[in-house]
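WARN no homologs supplied; continuing
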Amino acid sequence: MWVVVYGIVAGLLAVAFLGFGGSKLVRPREVMARSYMGWAAHVSDATFKSIGAVEVLGALGLVLPLLTGIAPWLSPTAAVGLSVVMGGAAVVHVRRGESPAAPLIMWVLTWTTAVVGCAALLT
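OK structure emitted
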């Protein structure tokens, strides 16, 4: 049962993080800063692209280890890593006087995914 729950939640999170991270990788930082990522104007291109790469790799880490059966413990570990990224995003939003609601929701979902992933591994 836990594996099914993990698969659903991790799959949805992976799609979201692939979208978030992928957009940071393929679109110029300046364009993103003008549209809906105002914080991007205050970081370097390398930092912006690095955040995108971490999100994409984290998304792959959520699903590939369990799907392949190779080092399945990496799936909940990826969820913990993404929760760290989302915690940092919440701090940035608070410091900028913006609502941290979206990154906090993702933070809760990634931690929940990590816990469910551990339960799936233990059963």
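The chain is about 80% helix and 0% strand.
OK
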